[in-house]
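DM from R.C. (forwarded with permission)

"hey, sorry to bug you on a friday — could you get me a structure for this? deadline for the figure draft is monday and I only need the backbone to look sensible"
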Amino acid sequence: MSEKTEKKKKKEARVHSYYKIEEDKLVRLRPFCERCGPGNFMADHGDRYTCGHCGFTRYKRKGENKTA
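My reply, with the result:
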């Protein structure tokens, strides 16, 4: 009685979703990792930013804007 269950396909992060265009300027929505350097974006976890490469975590301040 084993039923085959389909796994949900994981959506891969697209680099274009890390940028926004405002008045002919390119704005980064997420910071780069301080340890790894440019090109390694940090993940937004609501109250903190975390690097997926090295594991570095930077906590947000209470007044800092939260991204959706």
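R.C.: lifesaver. The chain has a mean pLDDT of 85.
me: no worries. The longest strand covers residues 37-44.
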